Amino acid sequence: MLVLLLALATAAVYLVVRTSAPADDDNAWAFRFFGELRDWVDANRDTSPLFLYGFNYLRLGVSMLVDTVHGALYGLGWAGLVAAAGALAAVVAGWRIALLAVAGFLSFGVLGLWEESVDTLVLTLSAVLLAVLIGVPLGVLAARVPAVGSALRPVLDVMQIMPTFAYLAPMTLLFLIGSPAATIATLIYAIPPAIRITALGITEVSKSTVEAATALGSTRWQLLGKVRLPLARPTIVLAVNQAIMMALSMVVITALIDAPGLGQTIVQALERVNVGAAFDAGLAIVVLAVVLDRITTHAAKRAVPTNHRSARLRAAGPLVAVVAVVAVTVLGRMSSWGAEFPAGWRASFAVPVNEATRWVEFHWYDATEALKNVVSAVLLDPIETVLTTTPWWLFLVTVLIFGTLSSGPRAAAIAGVAVAGLVGLGLWQHAMQTLATVLVATVATMAFGIVFGVLGARHDRFALVMRPVLDAAQTMPSFVYLLPAVALFGASRFTAIVAAVIYAVPPVVRLVERGVRDVPATVVEAAVSSGSTPRQLLWKVQLPMARRGLLLAANQGIVMVLAMVVVGGLVGAGALGYDVVAGFAQREDFGKGLAAGFAIVLLGILLDRLTQGAGRRADDNRLRRPAT
Q: CB within 10 Å: which end of the chain, N or C, has fewer?
């Protein structure tokens, strides 16, 4: 009742004080500040000690690492690299994964994207190597020193909330464009899961094992090197796995700052609306992601040999693998066919995909245009009008009041600070336009996610069929989703919404399915025995008890929708996404673009704190509720 009265009061105040949606000031102080900052950096890049002994050396070191990895992979030749992938998979994951790795790497050449795929692999491996070298020690430190863990937690939260676009402008400012800036941006995006999962693995090491080792006289370093790290090995390998997956999703976006690889192919396809070319490149990234994922996943699960013979065979494996790779590399280098991937082996999906796209464009135009117009008129335009005509102070008060009720005072306070930051950056109208698009896309994402998640939870066959589709959808780079959306709906805000829904639905489906499946079987059996119908069981038992999972799904959906809506600035979504893209393209807009990047981060913090806080508040209320 209180919430309803507050909502009515807020609506009444809005009707009295609403504004006429004034445009943002193109000369806001934040734009001037960031523009002057870029001018200072450009003028002092070769003279300031900050760059001479800091950023320039960091850029040089990363560049040397990328060049080393590049030289090593290209030095093997295509045959040697395929053999190396198979040999590595055989040693750490078994012969089945080795066959998958060989087939996967061969597919890069078959698609005609060998060099682009290797360039993407170079940047990914360079970033992941740095993420592991930095993230694993930090994760161990966070687990062993509570103060370090507490200090890192909010930093990692912000890093994981930040949409990929938001990393690019600061990277170009500090490290220019090219592979070093792309590698550092990918490192920043990939390192949070490496730190978090490593810390989790160290924390979960059995206390009794540690106590036994301590009783035997082990020192602190011996405990770490001989007990905690070996026992946490599967979890640390999982941390590497997640860092790889995050790096692959980011390294494609860095094509916007002149990073080589498959991202460049996708960006060029986007400029030409060539869905087929983007499909081939996206397929290559999916294959690369699947191969790397299976290698690391099976490496974490592989059992330790139980007898001397198995141990000897396991120990001889690396030597045999090295000999085989050297032999194939030398043979490939000495043979004419080893110079480059044979052209006769190539095939492409580009032509049939483009033909199918043209058929859909021609036959579905009326339906897609009607859908776009209806959603824009009924949902998007009214919500955008309300948000852009709401005075910032009323929006702030609303966030504080309703945020406190739903998520608690701490989350509401953080959200309020984020709102104040949006006001201070001078991008209020564009932030509200972006928020309107995010809200519409989130509603659609949650609708599809709940439907498919519930179906997956209640029907095992449906879940089995859906799982590989979700796997492929989650590894496909975000750029790829823009192409079919542009082909169907043209360049518009609705295009960004469609792409965002496709991009964000898979994790929402997984979380909803997990939440419904985690409802205790005893509760379900009790409801069924009481005469509940399947519909009553769903609405009165499973969904209410899966509330925490649904709120987590909403949180992840919002973060992913925000990231994709911003990328939609490339296809006419406007608002903050366009500001960021314009900041890359035009020097005079750099200040506004960088300010827009920070505004995106603040918008992400606002939405994340409210949804995460609501989930924690729901758990606290359930724990405080007296048992009946």
A: C
252's tokens: 């494609």
User: Confidence class of residue 256 from pLDDT cuts 50, 70 and 90?
Assistant: confident
| Structural tokens at position 168 | 């690019």
Cβ of 36: how many Cβ atoms within 10 Å? 11
Task: Collect all residues with Cβ–Cβ distance below 8 Å to 98 and sequence separation of at least 6.
Answer: 86, 87, 89, 90
Determine the Cα–Cα distance for residues 157 and 147; give it in Å rounded to an integer: 16
User: What is the C-alpha separation between 414 and 178, in angstroms, rounded?
Assistant: 35
- And the tokens for 269? 């396809």
The Cα–Cα gap between 619 and 615 comes to: 6
Q: CA-to-CA distance for 215 and 210, rounded, in angstroms?
A: 9
User: Which contiguous run of DSSP H or E holds residue 472?
Assistant: helix 460-475
Q: Note the pLDDT of residue 619.
A: 53
- Amino acid identity, position 399: V
Of 138, 265, 154, nearest in space to 197 by CA: 138
Give the pLDDT of residue 368: 84
Averaged pLDDT, 453-479: 80
Which candidate, 561, 559, 595, 563, places its Cα nearest to that of 579?
595
The owner of tokens 């990234």 is 285
Q: Stretch 469-497: mean pLDDT, rounded?
A: 76
75-78, long-range: CB within 8 Å, 24+ apart, which pairs? 76/325, 76/329, 77/329, 77/332, 77/333, 77/338, 77/339, 78/109, 78/114, 78/332, 78/338, 78/340, 78/341
Q: Give alpha helix (H) positions in 254-307.
A: 262-272, 275-301
Report the candidate in 448, 551, 555, 464 with the shortest Cα–Cα distance to residue 506: 448
pTM, 2 dp: 0.80
How would DSSP label each residue in 366-429? HHHHHHHHHHIIIIIHHHHHHHHTS-HHHHHHHHHHHHHHHH-HHHHHHHHHHHHHHHHHT-HH
Per-residue burial over 46-69, b if 16 or more Cβ lie within 10 Å, else e, is eeeeebeeebbeebeebbebbeeb
Taking the C-alpha atoms of residue 172 and residue 165, their distance in angstroms, rounded to an integer, is 12
Q: Is 63 helix (H, G, I), strand (E, B) or coil?
A: helix
Residue 48 makes CB contacts below 8 A (sequence gap 6+) with none
pLDDT digits (tens, 9 = 90+) for 563-610: 787 777 777 677 888 888 777 667 777 888 888 888 888 888 888 888
What are the tokens at 75?
A: 């030095």
Helix, strand, or coil (residue 218): coil
Contact 114, 107 (CB under 8 A): no
Joined tokens for residue 185: 């941006």
CB 218 within 8 A of CB 227: yes
Sign for the CA dihedral angle at 125, 131, 137, 142 comes to negative
* Distance from the Cα of residue 266 to its chain's centroid: 18
Q: Which two tokens stand for residue 497?
A: 């919404």
CA of residue 413 relative to chain centroid, distance: 26
Inter-residue contact 611 to 559 (CB < 8 Å): no
